[in-house]
Amino acid sequence: MTRTRLTAAERGEQLVAAAVKAFAVSGYTGTSTDDVARLAGVSQPYVIRLFGGKQRLFIAAVEHAAARIEQVFRDAAERSPDLDSLGQAYDELLAERDLLTLLLHGFAASADPTIGGAVRECFGRIYRLVRELTGADAEEARDFLASGMLLTVLASMQVLGPGAVPPEPWMAELAGSIHKSCAEPEPGG
Predict the structure, then answer these.
(1) Domain boundaries, the chain
(2) With contact defined as beta carbons under 8 Å apart, do 54 and 15 qualify?
(3) 158 by DSSP, 3-state: which?
(4) From residue 167, how far is each of 37, 160, 163 by CA, in Å?
(5) What value does the mean pLDDT take over residues 175-183?
(6) Contact 104, 123 (CB under 8 A)
(7) Helix 138-156 and helix 169-183: axis angle, to 10°?
(8) What is the pTM of this model?
(9) What is the pLDDT of residues 19-74, one digit of tens each?
(10) From its phi and psi, is residue 52 left (phi > 0), alpha (psi between -120 and 50) or beta?
(11) Per-residue H/E/C for 31-51
(12) Yes or no: is domain 8-183 CATH 1.10.3210.10?
């Protein structure tokens, strides 16, 4: 059986995918480059050679997650350029729990100046994109992102999405209120 050799770019993508999984489980401080290397099936020195260290690998994983959200929003806006369409698309992302949990770890690790700068840039791009794609004003975009953050937290706690725990009344109430508030027009609007 012959093995196909991956290019450095393909191997880098493979490592970022492994990093998303590893960092989603253990966060920035709890994950080593060796953990990522093992998950990707490569040596730890190879990870260092491609990324230079854990910090750059973590940032690459966060940037990958943000780029995925941006692409999902762009695709949704092609169908219908409004917040409801983007919200429905984000609901589909809830199945990608590792991606969303990684973002939460990115926010938590933002006290590190380099990580914080990268995470803020990613979040800023998403905010600007939401406004650009939908024409939402600052308040509408803020409310949209706030609801998305709550959905992200609920998905990370396994309240929503595949493999969700059996719902308790507060869970259904809270999740339902998010969707209701996203679907209702503003009074007088």
Answers:
(1) 8-183
(2) no
(3) coil
(4) 36, 9, 11
(5) 59
(6) no
(7) 160
(8) 0.85
(9) 999 999 999 999 999 999 999 999 999 999 999 999 999 999 999 999 999 999 99
(10) left
(11) CCHHHHHHHHCCCHHHHHHHH
(12) no
